[in-house]
Amino acid sequence: MCCRYYMEGREPDGKLAAIVDMMEKNWPGAYRTGEIFPGDTAPAIIAAGGKIKAVPAVFGFPGFENGKQLLNARSETAASKRSFAESLRSRRIILPATEFYEWSRGSDRTKYSFRAGSGHALYLCGIYRVVEDHLCFVILTREAEGPIAEIHDRMPVIASESEVRPYLTDYESALAIIAAEAPELIRENAKQHNSTDRSEEKG
Questions:
Q1: Residue 36: which CATH number?
Q2: pTM above 0.85?
Q3: Which residue in 184, 190, 105 sits closest to 152, CA to CA?
Q4: What are the pLDDT digits (tens) for 62-97?
Q5: pLDDT category of residue 126 using cuts at 50, 70 and 90
Q6: Looking at the domain assignment, is residue 202 inside a domain?
Q7: Taking the mean position of all CA atoms in its chain, how far away is CA 42?
Q8: CA 131 to CA 28: how far, in whole Å?
Q9: Who's near 121: CB < 8 A, 6+ residues apart?
Q10: CB-CB neighbours of 98 under 10 Å
């Protein structure tokens, strides 16, 4: 699963900085960066009007389980689930990230971060729906591979930079990206980002 991730604009290739610049130009004050929690409005990328755009989107589909938010959708079954099928077909979204988090299942509940082996940006694949004029997204997950498999049995679906446009604009390409091998990730004990972390809540 993926219920928390971190997004900043200072990774080596500057791609996230460019996204933040677009957000600041078009949506000043309408989003947050840093550690993204459920319910936060975060920078996101969608295809609209034939263009790839950076927009604010809220983390979580509302209205599930007594008002709780739904945060993830299993990629293996999303195309056949009524809750997700139409969004997967026509409302796909990318969540740019520096790293994402998972917690160990032992009594100590250690928080780990996972980032790209290249040190560059991650592009988390999701789907969205419009709720009261707000874009709301869930992150697609898949069976865990590599270093995350020792911590959890699920991980986010991750696109490469070159796959962002195909994922957003072409359904068959999106299905192929979802089914492809997971990228190389590096696991570390999560660092404390004092300027943005709001709690040490366990996910």
A1: 3.90.1680.10
A2: yes
A3: 105
A4: 876 667 789 999 999 999 999 899 999 999 999 999
A5: very high
A6: no
A7: 10
A8: 21
A9: 11, 13, 15, 16, 96, 97, 98, 161
A10: 23
